[in-house]
Amino acid sequence: MDQIRTGKLIRQLRTDCGLTQKQLAERINVSDKAVSKWECGSGCPDVSLLTELAEVLGTDVRTLLTGEIDKNESEKGNMKNLRFYVCGECGNIITASSETQISCCGRSLSPLEAKEASDTEKLKVTETDGEWYITSGHPMTKEHHIAFAAHLDDSSVTLRRCYPEWDLQLRMPLFRTGRLVWYCTKCGLFTQKK
User: What is the CATH number of the domain that holds 49?
Assistant: First the structure.
């Protein structure tokens, strides 16, 4: 932790929240002299205070530790760049439209890298009754199955959860543009243009 950078960040976040040093100190049960010391770069908050301090300042512990606020100015939340994260512990599916730090079940998650599906890996998509009907002969066992399938376009995502030991049969609204993405618990993330 860089005391000076973290101190400047604490000052910035505190003033953005409209708090005085004394008000911040009262909220986290320290003296206003301690807050002043942090902001001057003469010391840093004790590790036991970081979670509560981050909560009061509307940030996270990692930001306090680095002393920097990372902004995603370049991506502006473009849905074409949607990132998928899957927790290996609980199976939680998380998406983010720009680069971020994601954690679940106490573990930091990395975004999945999508591979272009080969002809044998592609999902079968047929148009029926104004919808897409999606099927696959992919294994659907507890240990090896497609966990979700999604459609992405410029402004939206439609995601359907899949469950092991069910045949893969999904219906989605009919889309004329965009791409399909799906995640296999053993093989990873795949994509195919429709």
Answer: 1.10.260.40
Q: Tell me how crowded residue 155 is: count the other CB atoms within 10 A of its CB.
A: 9
Task: Give me the torsion for CA of 37, 38, 41, 42, rounded to 10°.
Answer: 40
The C-alpha angle 178, 180, 185, rounded to 5 degrees, equals 155
Beta bridge partners of residue 191, listed in sequence order: 116, 181
- Distance between CA atoms of 134 and 34, rounded to whole angstroms? 60
Is the Cβ–Cβ distance between 149 and 123 less than 8 Å? Answer: yes
Provide the residue range defining the domain that includes 60: 3-66
Q: What CATH number did the domain enclosing 109 receive?
A: 2.60.40.730
For residues 23-39, b (16+ Cβ closer than 10 Å) or e, as one string?
ebbeebebeeebbbbbb
Q: What is the pLDDT of residues 32-85, one digit of tens each?
A: 999 999 999 998 899 899 999 989 998 888 888 888 876 544 445 567 678 999
- Predicted pLDDT of residue 194: 63
Q: How many CA atoms lie within 13 A of 32 on its CB side?
A: 6
Q: Are 144 and 184 in contact (CB under 8 A)?
A: yes
Tens of pLDDT, residues 107-120: 999 999 999 999 99
Residues 100, 35 share a domain: no
